[in-house]
């Protein structure tokens, strides 16, 4: 979880911006969630040298998989994805600070999950326990463990998306207010 917070989450907004160019909003959320699910399913991340590049590549692969399944594909989508240049760069101090803030935000979101869901999510995704062991420890079925992990991830991702939408709405209001002030000053 700490690795996701420091190496993946700080790049989510960049991935979203890129995906918005080719996907409708409903598909964008699905691709982001599928990407997080894929990353969450990794048993080990030590082989990943660059979280940003891995996040972009994982999202790109999911989009390509979806495009392959689609019957009709916009040629612009395929061209844009193929031309995507993923740059591997070392994180700046600002990115590190942003990653730490994002990690703390995710920790708060996890703490806000319903009790059983939170316990299951922490045991499964933070402590890395097998699904069967989590089920045995908590006296629930493996199906419940699987559903609660998915529910927890969905709630966390939804809260992040809601925060992002709220920030975007604040930015738009601010721009409108600034534009209104400039129009008034010009008269």
Number of strands: 0
Shape: globular
Q: Which residues sit in consecutive blocks of at least 5 with pLDDT less than 50? A: none
User: Fraction of residues in helices?
Assistant: over 70%
Average pLDDT level: 80
What are the secondary-structure elements, in order, as H or E? Answer: HHHHHHHHH
Structural class of the helices, strands and pairings?
A: mainly alpha
How many helices? The count is: 9
Distance between the terminal alpha carbons, to the nearest Å? Answer: 54 Å
Please state roughly what percent of the residues sit in beta strands, choosing from under 5%, 5-15%, 15-25%, 25-35%, 35-45% or over 45%.
under 5%
Radius of gyration: 19 Å
> Major sheet: size, sense and barrel closure?
none
Explained architecture:
The chain has 187 residues and is mainly α. The protein has 9 helices and no strands. The protein has helices at 2-8, 12-20, 25-40, 51-69, 75-82, 93-111, 115-126, 131-138, 142-186. The protein is globular, with a radius of gyration of 19 Å.
In short:
With 187 residues, the chain is an all-alpha fold. It has helices spanning 2-8, 12-20, 25-40, 51-69, 75-82, 93-111, 115-126, 131-138, 142-186.
Keywords:
187 residues; mainly alpha; 0% strand; globular
Secondary structure layout:
Elements: H1 2-8, H2 12-20, H3 25-40, H4 51-69, H5 75-82, H6 93-111, H7 115-126, H8 131-138, H9 142-186
């Amino acid at each position: 979880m700490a690795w996701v917070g420091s190496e993946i989450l700080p790049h989510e907004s960049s991935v979203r911006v890129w995906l918005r160019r080719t996907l409708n909003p409903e598909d964008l959320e699905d691709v982001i969630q599928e990407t997080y699910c894929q990353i969450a399913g990794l048993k080990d991340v030590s082989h990943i040298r660059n979280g940003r590049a891995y996040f972009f590549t994982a999202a790109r692969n999911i989009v390509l998989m979806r495009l392959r399944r689609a019957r009709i594909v916009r040629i612009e989508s395929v061209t844009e994805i193929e031309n995507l240049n993923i740059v591997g760069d070392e994180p700046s101090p600002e990115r590190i600070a942003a990653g730490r803030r994002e990690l703390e935000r995710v920790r708060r979101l996890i703490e806000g999950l319903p009790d059983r869901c939170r316990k299951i999510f922490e045991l499964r995704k933070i402590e890395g326990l097998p699904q069967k062991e989590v089920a045995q420890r908590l006296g629930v079925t493996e199906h419940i463990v699987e559903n609660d992990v998915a529910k927890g991830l969905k709630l966390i991702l939804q809260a992040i998306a809601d925060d992002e939408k709220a920030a975007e709405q604040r930015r738009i209001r601010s721009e409108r207010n600034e534009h209104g002030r400039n129009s008034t000053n010009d008269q």
